[in-house]
Amino acid sequence: MLFPAKMKEVCIIGLKNEKEEILENIQDFGFLHPKEIQLPLEMQQPGAEEEISALGRINKLLEKIESMENKKSNFLVDLFGPSTITKKIPDKINLKIIDSTERTINHHLDSLKNLETEIKDLEELKGLLLKVDKIDVDFSFLKYSRVVKTILGEVEIKKTKDLQKILNQFNTTIYGISQFSKNMGSAIIISHFSEADHVKELTKHLLTEYDMSKLIKKPKKQLNGVTRKLNRLKKEYNRVFKNFLKQSTEWKQYLFIAKGFLMNLKEKKDVQAYLRSTEKTFILCGWVPENHVNKLASSVKNFNCWFNFEKADDAPILLENPRIVKPFESFVKNYGFPQYKHLDPTSILALTIPLFFGFMMSDVVYGISLLIVSLLIKRSLKNKTTEWVTSIAIPFSIFTVLFGILFGSYAGFEFHPIWLSPQQKPIALFAVAIFIGILHINLGLILNMTNGVKNKDLTIILDSISWFFIEFSVITGAMRFLGLFEISTNVLIISLIIGGGIRFFIKKFIGIIDIPGFFGNVLSYTRLMIIVLASVYIVYVINFSVKMLWGTFIPLSILIFVVGHSFNFLMSTLGASINSLRLHYIEFFGRFFEGNGIEYKPFRKNLSVEVI
Amino acid sequence: MVVQDIGLIAISAAAAISVCAGLSVIAQGKAAVAGQAAITENEKLFSKALILTAITETQAIYGLIVALLLIFYGFGVL
After folding, report:
1. How many Å apart are CA A289 and CA A506, to the nearest integer?
2. What are the chain B neighbours of A336 within 8 Å (beta carbons)?
3. What is the ipTM score, two decimals?
4. Between chains, do B78 and A578 touch, taking CB under 8 Å as contact?
5. What is the extent of the structural domain holding A206?
6. Its pTM surpasses 0.90
7. Residue A315 within any structural domain of the chain
8. What are the pLDDT digits (tens) for A259-278?
9. How many domains does chain A have?
10. Whether the Cβ atoms of residue A539 and residue A568 lie closer than 8 Å to each other
């Protein structure tokens, strides 16, 4: 629980003619993390081209389906991802269905695309017809006339007089203007061929010409037909789209399962890159958790295999934690995996992250709201992210309620604080924050020393001891300055010299330069107090405004209460979680955690897949 | 000891926090933009981006501590 799983280094030598079956059994066993071996033997080529190509096609199809479904996405889905269901991957599937599914999906998408283009064209035409519908002229006749030429265009109403002035100069030209909006109108100019070019030249600065090619009869008549066709096409589009969405669930299910199946095949071929072989044998090495060693041996007992197990000095990291603590592994993984034989801080984080969060949020109503919001999110979206959010929200809200009771805060209204009132005793809160900081950093130093003892590394042990000496000197010195503690100056100086001396001995000048930074880290814990006070004062302003308006305008005061508290709830949740993480990642992890371990990724057959 | 000039204490405290917070925010903004770009390229860099962004915030905390000490000390709370 406090350390990653113990590993054994294993090498398996088998016969080449049994290679496929042995690899399949090892994949079914699912606990071997393969390792590169440096032997002057023949390398195997992974050769998973077929699977990679099929996976590429599946991903493309899934992207296409997703792009169609995205039209109906919402804020929660964007934040937490879509709902998923778990489906079993069968031992065998018919991969030929990928081809037929691809054809069907592309056919549907082509139909939708054609309908979209047609609708777009008709909407453009409808827009034009609406602008010219008062012009009672049959364009089919005018367009093909050998006597006259027609110009149809848009003109600003304020410029119509200029246009009329120009057109009145011509004898064989007639025109009409119809207004379709407050400032704009459509003009039709019909000129004899002899004058047409001249008219066009003189009016081009006043007119924006329309494309008449699609006008085939009287506009009003054509508009009715276009509107009917547009409605019919839109209905058709909706029908095809609904049909697509209905079938997409089935397609996606098949594609995700096929993807999982192909990934298993690909992994089996990829592992060949770790194999080295002679003419008749092959060798595969890796790491296996100590408690699975026997299972590995029994998984290939029917084959001619030779095993060698050795104690691992360095190995990939498998975090082993109880179920209740498991969700907090993400916080460790986000930073990096611990080194082998070093402490896994997940169990400590499972207590301290919610504790810091609860301290900063510290409100009974907000704590309960946090739990309700997370449960509502989990109810409306079922996937791994929402499950994780709920599992961490429970301890977060418990600590928030607990500190809310201790600080007597109920939606910002103070009611019998059991411990202290942040608003009335900010100094006490400041002292508590610093005290928590000292405890937290010292816990980090103790964990660092544990790492040192476990790995028999004197430098790590001395590093922690030096800080204990320096801390003793500075903290007791400060207490003496404040008159809280009596201690001889000589003791303080000697303690400081010993601490500084050890640091100089192990890290030279860098060790000395680090000292102010260490106390900077302690001061950084004042953010625990600052976030509490910030939230308290924001809530004070909200509640004060509500009280002022309550007698005069009740609906507004209720609105301010709801909006104000929702805003503060969101800001407090964000601030408390980010600052809680920061205190762990920088101040706490900085004392003992390096985070450069390698993640344990076993050669494994996935038995199920998450289908969106 | 209580300092008599309350206005001077208030101005000093305001200067301490506003200068520190203002400059810290400028640096934090730059770090956040760079961090966001890095996360877009590689999601695993989230924690490192968060740390780099948070580091600059420390200066604002120091400013706030100075401001609080000025107020507490000046008004005789300490």
Report:
1. 35
2. 47
3. 0.74
4. no
5. 137-217
6. no
7. no
8. 888 888 888 888 888 888 88
9. 2
10. yes
